[in-house]
Amino acid sequence: MQRDLDLNRTVWDPLQIFNCDTHYKYAVVILNSPLNWKDDSLLQIWKKAQIKVTVDGGTYRWLHYLKEQGIDLLRENHSEYVPHLITGDMDSCTPSILENLKRVGSMIIETPDQDHTDYAKALFQLGQYATKENINLNGIYVFVDSSGRFDHIMGNINTLYKSEKLIGHIPVIQIASSSLTWILRPGLHNIVIPKILVQNSSWCGLLPIGAPVNSIRTTGLKWNLNNATLQFGALVSSSNTYDNCSEVTVNTDSSVIWTMGIEPLQKNINNYEIFTSNNCC
Questions:
Q1: For domain 178-280, is the CATH number 3.40.50.20?
Q2: How buried is 9 (Cβ within 10 angstroms: 0-12 exposed, 13-18 middle, 19+ buried)?
Q3: Any idea which fold 22-177 has?
Q4: What is the pLDDT of residues 157-210, one digit of tens each?
Q5: Where is each Thiamin pyrophosphokinase thiamin-binding domain found (predicted)?
Q6: Is the overall model pTM greater than 0.85, yes or no?
């Protein structure tokens, strides 16, 4: 999802998620939240991942999604859809399901520690597995749609902030059927915006969760920030959009959440031409 152009610049290209570049090594994590994907795009992302993880009740979610695609993982031989790891405190997944998946190749790691969320524990176990298997990951895609629980939403954001302690400097991208969310660490970032999102004036936002951002500058947004301070109770950049531009730049002195709507992109995932970027402003 990102590559360093120099010591102070990072490029993010959301299309890389759906193009599944074979040179980009990533892991997929399925949390216990709805999988609102009506086509096979999630299947394609899963199949090309180097490490595949389901987290507790996320195992049920994955099995149910596969059945919607005509795939019965427990009755048929579909090794490409078997998770490498199943983690969690296992309060939302039955022993019989776990035993069946273990029989076809899944590693079951129970993580009963209640001081950390299953999401956080899954990232840690994923890092241990990658080290053991000598897999150098470029990114981690975590599939998590909102289930209406605001405390869960904030818990997931908290895990994003903790991700460097759990998994190192591997970028973690939270993917929902209608949005992408990740952290921009201090420094300069270039975010490539697919043409269809610009054309549809899709929403985006910069949110200073946890602590103020004292100085942030942007280009490419309809409402840009110029050495602004972002802070809850004062200014936050919510409900923003793009200024007819294929690239957004963000220069921030503190970690800040970037979130962007992708509904037009997800609905037209098989039409590559509409992804092509405009000329940058």
A1: no
A2: middle
A3: Rossmann fold (3.40.50)
A4: 999 999 999 999 999 999 999 999 999 999 999 999 999 999 999 999 999 998
A5: 187-256
A6: yes
